[in-house]
Amino acid sequence: MQISRNYYVSTLIKYLQPLWHQSLLLLILLLLGIGLRLLNPQILAAFIDIATSEADFSRLIQLALMFLGIALTTQLISLLETYLAADIGLQATNRLRANLTLHCLQLDMSFHNQQTPGALIERIDGDISQLNHFFSRFIIDFCGNSIFAIGVLIALFYIDWRIGITAIALVVILVLTSEHINKIVIPYFQAERASSASLFGFLGERLSGTEDISANGATAYVMHRFYERSRDLFPKLVKSQTFGAGVFSIWISLFTLGKAVILGVSITLFLNNAFAIGTVYLIYRYIELLQQPIQKFGRQIQDLQKASAALIRVRELLTTQSSLLDIGQTTLTQQALSVSFHHVDFRYPQSQPDQAPLGRGCRFGVWGVGEEIAPTTSGSQASSSQDDFIAGDSKPRPIPSSLHPIRDPNATSDLVLRDISFSLSPNSILGLLGRTGSGKTSITRLLLRLYDPTQGTIRLDGVNLLDIPITQLREHIGIVTQEIQLFHASVRNNLTLFESSIPDARIEEMIQEVGLGDWYQSLPQGLDTILAPGGSGLSAGQAQLLAFVRVFLKNPGLVILDEASSRLDPATEQLLTKAIDRLLVGRTAIIIAHRLATVKRADQIMILEDGHCLEYGQRQELATNPQSRFAQLLQIGLEEAFGT
């Protein structure tokens, strides 16, 4: 993947435009510094000529003081430039880092399932850190050094046209050489960044599992894998650094050769009395000054190579699109919501390393890997069934061809849900039963639109999920799972998920409601108490109860309890029973459970097995039917039947 110059320019403009005041001041300081640097050699040349001829002492003192004043001013300007450049670079890269983080958070789970947290951190932080100098100094330095080099060339032309032509030839050779070498070196830096991301992804994943690794004696295996990734990174790092340094060395060698030629021409002209000794020094000094932008150009090429490799990876991430189309505009009410599944099949998307871009006839992860998006059909081929229309409009409208999948009758072996249909009215409770891996959690993920079904339709409150904005959809669904994510933040932010509009009084009321009053009273700073990373200072039961507080505060129309009480001891579960009963009042609920006490709350029962609906119906009817699977489970116990 190559990046055009237009993309470099557009990226710079996008992130530097809000900082144009600072950038303009930086440019002014840069131009002022260039002018002073071009002036100083003139003062030195005049000093030499006066010292070797008239020996006007007072004039020499004036020139010396002027030289010192300009030198001090140049250093002060350089200090201000450094500060402004650092400020601009950090602000620009932080904006890019924030945009990239938000973009990753908005991508669907099929993307995150293929990435390790450490690899994403390296791409969001490591790659963007490589762009810091690109934003802060590259364009300013490039323009400044270009202007400075042009100024030096003009000065050399003014001294003697032969010197000027020789210097221009040198610059042209250096520019053409760098353009060619740059295309060769960038892939090496890109490979280094990819290998570095793999290493940091591995470290992030393994360090998060330190307890299990140590307890199970897997340290040697982890270190072996660490050495493998390090050995992969090392040669790529050596190559990128070697080639990068090689570019700089070539620049310096060519410049040294060109400088020798220019000095040879100058000496020849001096011996022919074309100009005085002060002019020879002036030429020498300007050539030395020309070396500074040339050397900086070389370093900038190295920076540009690193920035190009990082920018390619950043662009790849930014152009990665979620397979979940968020085009819905239908709003939901806050009341209890109905839920319906109609002939739903689902498979988890598999990795597609060479996935085609979105468009007609392309492969699209939302419908599962290996399925073609149906082209537009007409005539007898067009479907006219009820399922071919998107709900929520006053008039049915056909599902766009890009959203209408073709079912592959032969690709069913990897389905985790097969032909699931049920209807749950508002204020009803569905008890979802089945062994581990039967597809229970997959149903909840489809409701939250963490994935889209491979086939079939899901409706909430009579509205197709595709017609509901994803953010609003998830605002109306509250879920408590077995694993609770707690942040290294205050109790308040952990319970409100950083929603500042919820009053403290309501938070405290809900804490009391779930039976955590004594725990709350023990907190040294109340709601401002900072929880340990990952909630390590809490018991499993306390963490689970805090998750219930979150749902209470969210006040959703649909509640999903995914084996939410499985980690609680009997005493804690008894405290939770009353809170659950209150939580379910006026709400629709889906409860995934292994315990009979939890199932007794359900109005309907669905039993899943290997992704199939083995049994579905009213709980009372199933319980009194001796032929039903549910009645048999009640006799032998859910824990025994499902191995829990």
Question: Could you characterize what this model shows?
Answer:
This protein has 644 residues and is α/β, with parallel strands linked by helices. The chain folds into two domains: 5-318, ABC transporter type 1, transmembrane domain (ABC transporter transmembrane region fold); 422-642, P-loop containing nucleotide triphosphate hydrolases (Rossmann fold), CATH 3.40.50. The chain has helices at residues 5-16, 20-51, 57-106, 109-112, 117-130, 132-159, 161-208, 210-215, 219-271, 277-318, 440-447, 470-475, 491-496, 504-513, 517-521, 540-554, 570-584, 596-599, 619-624, 629-636, 638-642, and strands at 339-346, 389-390, 397-398, 417-424, 429-434, 455-460, 463-464, 477-480, 558-562, 588-592, 604-609, 612-618. The strands form three sheets. The protein has a six-stranded mixed beta sheet with strand order 8-9-10-5-11-12, with helices on both faces. Strands 4-1-6-7 form a four-stranded antiparallel beta sheet, with helices on one face. Strands 2-3 form a two-stranded antiparallel ribbon. Strand 2 (389-390) and strand 3 form a beta hairpin. Helix 6 packs antiparallel against helix 10 (277-318). It starts with a helix and ends with a helix. Mean pLDDT is 77; it is low at 352-411.
